[in-house]
Prior knowledge:
With 293 residues, the chain is an alpha+beta fold. Helix content is 25%, strand content 28%. It has helices at residues 17-33, 68-80, 158-166, 185-207, 261-270; strands at residues 4-10, 38-40, 83-93, 96-105, 108-114, 120-121, 124-125, 139-141, 146-149, 171-175, 179-180, 210-214, 217-220, 228-231, 235-237, 243-246, 253-259. The longest helix has 23 residues, at 185-207. It starts with a strand and ends in a 23-residue tail after the last helix.
Amino acid sequence: xxxxxxxxxxxxxxxxxxxxxxxxxxxxxxxxxxxxxxxxxxxxxxxxxxxxxxxxxxxxxxxxxxxxxxxxxxxxxxxxxxxxxxxxxxxxxxxxxxxxxxxxxxxxxxxxxxxxxxxxxxxxxxxxxxxxxxxxxxxxxxxxxxxxxxxxxxxxxxxxxxxxxxxxxxxxxxxxxxxxxxxxxxxxxxxxxxxxxxxxxxxxxxxxxxxxxxxxxxxxxxxxxxxxxxxxxxxxxxxxxxxxxxxxxxxxxxxxxxxxxxxxxxxxxxxxxxxxxxxxxxxxxxxxxxxxx
Length: 293
């Protein structure tokens, strides 16, 4: 495979599922017009970030993988000749829900990834809604190249990035919904955002892959919550961690970056981290903590 372009759709999400889907379709078209071959939407783009509170009625927002979001975006992918990554609130079965990313090629669904690491923090009550993924860490073939997809909280875990890279992904996408608690922004805001950016650049370096983080923007405050200010800053890092492009902190928009497999080859030849891994002595990484006598 040769070079290809990726498009990151950074958007404020309307508080209406139909309007959100229409906006996503419009921005996918914009990205394709700008030359993107693989286009990624932010996490749970169909709705406001509902996990700020626990409310059983919000399970009604979920849809099956073959529901309206994938159907609409499949039409766009086919018409535009692009691959679209769409993050869904998946209803798998009655009472069983996932935070799922669908990879949609021009000729149909390439596959899905279900978010593995599920947070449970103030304003991010995802364990109430989502069952941890059971599909493992995967990579997907597209007409343009082999890609991997992880979701938001997964971005803090080096194991997830490593296994996705070992599956042959040339770029790891992280559809994301991350922001500041208003009461914390002044004291901790810049450090939090810097840590978020740094850890993902580290995954790019450690694995010699491109990394694309795709966040939303805007302030969302469901009834009874303090709200979250999503910090945008969607970015692409190259195989040695350098930032290639980065979006603003507060505006809708599409950012484009070129993926060049030759750069992955060059980087891994000169920094052969995969070559020098000692897979014979890593047994402990599967333990929660090494406190056994």
